Amino acid sequence: MALREVELNGTHRLIFGPKAPCSAPNCPSRTPTAPLALEAYQMVFDRIVGSPQLGTKVLEVPEFYEDRGGGRQCVGPDICGNCVERWESGHAEMRKRAWAALPDIFGLKS
C-alpha cells in the first residue's frame, strides 16, 4: 500500500502538477487547466498507474505511446513530444526515488 501511495502521489504531481504552458501550437498542454488538457492528462495518468487490481507500476518504465494504426501516438491525445519527454524524464526520477525508498517502505534498514 505504501508503494502504491508513492506511485499515485508522484504520478499525480508529475502529470497534473504546476508546469509552464507548452509552446507547441496544438498541444493541449498549451493551456494546462483547460478541459481538453485535463482529459488528456487523465488518460496519461490512468495509463501510468493502471488499475488498483494491477498493483504498482511505479518501478516499471511506462509506455507513453501506443500504436494506433497510423503510427505511434501519445496515449494522451495530441500531447506533443516535448511534453512526453518531460514526463518520461520525470517518471525516471520518480522511479529512482521509489527504488531508493523500498527499504524504508518494507521496514528494512537502508
Please give a structural write-up:
The protein has 110 residues and is mostly helical. The protein has one domain (2-105). 50% of the residues lie in helices and 5% in strands. The protein contains three helices and two strands, in the order ααββα. The chain has a two-stranded antiparallel ribbon with strand order 1-2. A hairpin with a 4-residue loop joins strand 1 (65-67) and strand 2 (72-74). Helix 1 packs antiparallel against helix 2 and helix 1 runs antiparallel to helix 3. It is elongated, with a radius of gyration of 15 Å. It starts with a helix and ends in a 5-residue tail after the last helix. The mean pLDDT is 82.
Concise summary:
By secondary structure, this protein is mainly alpha-helical. It has helices at 2-16, 35-49, 81-105, and strands at residues 65-67, 72-74. Helix 1 packs antiparallel against helix 2 and helix 1 (2-16) runs antiparallel to helix 3 (81-105).
Overview features:
single chain; 110 residues; mainly alpha; two-stranded antiparallel ribbon; 3 helices; 50% helix
Low-confidence stretches: none
Residue-averaged pLDDT: 82
Q: What coarse outline follows from CA principal-axis ratios?
A: elongated
- The helix/strand series, from N terminus to C terminus, equals HHEEH
Number of domains: 1
Radius of gyration: 15 Å
Determine the fraction of residues in helical runs and give it as a percent range.
Answer: 40-55%
How many individual helices?
3
